[in-house]
């Protein structure tokens, strides 16, 4: 009963959607277990079609796999329905979608509060997407959240929303001088969503347990990444959920004993969106080069991504924290043409060399990267399909990453397309 977890090893945008798509035809279920529509996966099919997915698991493009949105996800029903309709219009079968009835809903007051609070934070803002994810998770923890199953009971929906708005409207109106949310209009809007979403709502935990009992393969797909984890990331500049491997058990209802493989995805360099510490960030022509050649703009927001050299301290931390068995390195081709390719192998903090993640937020903010420079390569690597097809210096780069992370590199991405990969070890038997 194999369950596989797929996570990001950096700050997100590593190319997890491409890896899910690679595995999609060989797994039976693809499960999204955390986050909301603040994340995005870009998948390019063999015929060149590009799909930007936000709430739908990347496995939606697989012709056979069941696709599941787990209880750990927060769902904006308007966004989800728009995504369902967009995929259907392009001929993608969305009838295989199932959504946990325990997944929490993003409501209008969540979006309103997210935007206004971020604005009032000014220079101290976190860099959220303004889509209501944080406030929705906040209400979940405060036990006043509204779940998908509540859409199926109009009385419960109205009662829960009325209770929530009793507080939220006071905050919006009296604290932030914003318009209050209308109860009746919101109930009417969300009951209309209920009619369309009802066929998809299910008890997904039992569905996945039964699948594992039958020996079927379940792929658990996280949004965002390790360094954005609420508990283990660069707090407070993090997301509001647990996209690490441990979060997969909670967010999908999968027992830990069912997981036998953890695949981590990392770019051959590093990017980050939003505020927060980033030791290897580049502010020079090299950073502009990585952003331009790598097309580093957010799938969901369109924001420019901050770019920097590969940080082996972060990657090794992610591998140890998640129990990574296989590392996938994407976008190696972006480094082509650089005379030297630095790797951060440690930090200097207050004049002291450290090789592991510092304990305190203050130390991480002041960490200065210690670089090791490797020779670059000029050859076009996009046609490479085996390790021997890569130039010697590219092979040395991958070998050094593998050594620093103490985790085997199984796949190397050499282009954005589904087939543009070098396979060193099989991800699935």
Automatic annotation (TrEMBL):
Protein name: Adenylosuccinate synthetase
Family membership: Belongs to the adenylosuccinate synthetase family.
Sequence positions that bind IMP: 13-16, 38-41, 129, 143, 224, 239, 303
Annotated substrate binding sites: 299-305
Function of the protein: Plays an important role in the de novo pathway of purine nucleotide biosynthesis. Catalyzes the first committed step in the biosynthesis of AMP from IMP.
Residue ranges of the TM segments: none
Annotated cofactor note: Binds 1 Mg(2+) ion per subunit.
EC number: 6.3.4.4
Molecular function as annotated in GO: adenylosuccinate synthase activity
């Amino acid at each position: 009963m194999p369950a596989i977890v797929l996570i990001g090893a950096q700050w997100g945008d590593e190319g997890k959607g491409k890896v899910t798509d690679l595995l999609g035809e060989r797994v039976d279920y693809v499960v999204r277990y955390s986050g909301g529509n603040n994340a995005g996966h870009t998948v390019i099919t063999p015929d060149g079609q590009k799909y930007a997915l936000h709430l739908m698991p990347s496995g939606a493009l697989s012709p056979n796999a069941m696709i599941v949105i787990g209880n750990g996800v927060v769902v904006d029903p308007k966004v989800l329905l728009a995504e369902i309709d967009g995929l259907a219009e392009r001929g993608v079968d969305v009838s295989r979608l199932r959504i946990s009835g325990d997944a929490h809903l993003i409501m209008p007051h969540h979006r309103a509060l997210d935007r206004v609070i971020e604005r009032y934070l000014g220079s101290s803002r976190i860099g959220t997407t303004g889509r209501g994810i944080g406030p929705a998770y906040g209400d979940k923890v405060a036990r006043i959240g509204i779940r998908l199953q509540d859409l199926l009971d109009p009385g419960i929906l109205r009662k829960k929303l009325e209770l929530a708005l009793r507080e939220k409207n006071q905050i919006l109106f009296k604290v932030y001088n914003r318009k209050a949310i209308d109860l009746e209009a919101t109930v009417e809007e969300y009951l209309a969503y209920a009619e369309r979403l009802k066929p998809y709502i299910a008890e997904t935990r039992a569905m996945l347990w039964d699948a594992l009992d039958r020996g079927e393969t379940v792929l658990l797909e996280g949004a965002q990444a390790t360094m954005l984890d609420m508990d283990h990331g660069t707090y407070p500049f993090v997301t509001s959920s647990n996209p690490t491997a441990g979060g997969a058990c909670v967010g999908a209802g999968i027992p830990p004993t069912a997981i036998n493989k953890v695949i981590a995805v990392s770019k051959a360099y590093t990017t980050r969106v939003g505020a927060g510490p980033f030791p290897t960030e580049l502010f020079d022509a090299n950073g502009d080069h990585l952003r331009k050649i790598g097309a580093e703009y957010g799938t969901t927001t369109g924001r420019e991504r901050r770019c920097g050299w590969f940080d082996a301290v972060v990657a090794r931390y992610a591998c140890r924290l998640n129990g990574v068995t296989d590392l996938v390195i994407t976008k190696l081709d972006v480094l082509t043409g650089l005379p030297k390719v630095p790797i951060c192998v440690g930090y200097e903090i207050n004049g002291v060399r450290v090789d592991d993640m510092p304990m305190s937020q203050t130390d991480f903010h002041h960490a200065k990267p210690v670089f090791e420079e490797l020779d670059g390569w000029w050859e076009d690597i996009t046609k490479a399909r085996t390790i021997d097809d890569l130039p010697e210096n590219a092979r040395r780069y991958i070998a050094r990453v593998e050594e620093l992370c103490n985790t085997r590199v199984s796949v190397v991405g050499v282009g954005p397309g589904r087939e543009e990969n070098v396979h060193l070890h099989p991800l699935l038997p």
